[in-house]
Amino acid sequence: MTEPIGLPDLSVEKDYVGDAFSAIYTTTVTVHGGAVSHGRASGRARSSDGALDLDLRMPAELGGERQGTNPEQLFAAGFAACYHGALSLVARQEDLDPATLSVDATVAFGRDPDDGGYLLHVDVVVKWPGVDPAVATDLLEKANSLCPYARMAWQGTPTTITLAL
Question: Structural domain of residue 117, as residue ranges?
Fold first, then answer.
């Protein structure tokens, strides 16, 4: 008999004492190659463990040929997966079954009206048939405070950019 997969010991309700960021998991994805003259990601993206290995292409809506994925799709997938995981966790902690839960993340790439640069806009829609809306709303708030993608959206993410020679 297979042992059930245990819940990870992650929660914003658990005490954490520390004065610095404490990494639990780290990954690296390298993008290389491709035609970059258009200012959009192209080429190949590969994770350090090889689990992610795919072509990057400009979307057809921006003049591309749809022969690969693009950064907005990857971000939407990451956001939806992360939020789904956080919401599933808080649901199980409340003895609710998250099996029917689905999360749509829509990412729009567009212009910043303040400076003409580029911005992303994210819309997240949660579908959870059979769950009381009042209960679901409370759990969405808990998941929002637990999901690192959601936290990044409302508080920013520390970022360093270094030139390696």
Answer: 70-165
